[in-house]
Amino acid sequence: MENIFIVVVILVVFFIFVQKRLVKDESIKDSAYKRKGPLLNMQETAIYNALVSAVGVHGVVMSKVNLSNVLAPVATDKKGWFVANNRIAKSYFDFVICDPRTLEVRVAIELDNGRELDKGKVERQKLLMHVCKSANIPLIGTSIKHSYQVGRLRRLLAAHIDLIEPSKEVRFCKKCGSPMVIKVANQGDFKGRRFFTCSRQPQCTYTENYNVVFDEGEG
User: Fold this and answer.
1) Three-state SS string across the chain, please?
2) Where do transmembrane segments lie in this chain (predicted)?
3) What is the per-residue pLDDT across 79-100, written as a single tens digit (0 to 9) for each?
4) Sheet containing 92-98: order of strands
5) Residue 176: CB partners within 8 Å, gap ≥ 6?
6) What are the C-alpha distances in Å from 48 to residues 43, 56, 65, 115?
7) pLDDT value at position 120?
């Protein structure tokens, strides 16, 4: 009786092994693939090319980067970590601009597809705003356009990435008329970002956001 049981067990194990092997071989041989085409649609390609032109050699533009590849949950226990990680596991940044040397994300870009707000879109926006604020990653939103003014993108991104040389950006203090200089914040919520300040400091304390409102005629 024991011999029969052993034989049956061996046959069952052999059958399972052969079945898995055949299924594995068939899944490889019978599966055919084709390329799906461009990774980005026409609207996404337009903003991608504009971003590449704007950052030049000062940044690397990547698209559809999973949030979990950029962010890590800060939690004191395993359950909290898994809950926080699951919130971002299936979502992604439309575009990110990375440091060209380290590929560390410097800026995130959210492309508004123009569709009406629904529950999914609202939840996504809330999630992106929360994680970017929490991780201190600048989040810039832009709507779909047929073309983009590279000059405006450069000015917008220059608050976070060294794109424009100080000698090419001349401003004068609106309080005393003196030339302004560019400095980098070393503390607070805007740590690491560039801003203009009056060259007469500490006599004049006027400061100005680096990406101040653009002129309409700028290209």
Assistant:
1) CHHHHHHHHHHHHHHHHHHHHHHHHHHHHCCCCCCCCCCCCHHHHHHHHHHHHHHHHHCEEEEEEEHHHHCCCCCCCHHHHHHHHHHHHCCEEEEEEECCCCCCEEEEEEEECCCCCCHHHHHHHHHHHHHHHHHCCCEEEEECCCCCCHHHHHHHHCCCCCCCCHHHCCCECCCCCCEEEEEECCCCCCCCCEEEEECCCCCCCCEEECCCCCCCCCC
2) 6-23
3) 999 999 999 999 999 999 999 9
4) 60-66, 92-98, 105-112, 139-143
5) 198, 200, 204, 206
6) 9, 12, 13, 20
7) 85
Share of the chain above pLDDT 90, in %: 33
Q: How many residues would you count in the chain?
A: 219
What is the β-pairing status of strands 207-209 and 92-98?
A: unpaired
List the single range of 1-15, 34-48, 79-93 with lowest mean pLDDT.
1-15
- What average pLDDT does range 36-54 have in this prediction? 89
What are the chain's domains? Answer: 42-157 (3.40.1350), 166-209 (no CATH)
Give the pLDDT of residue 115: 77
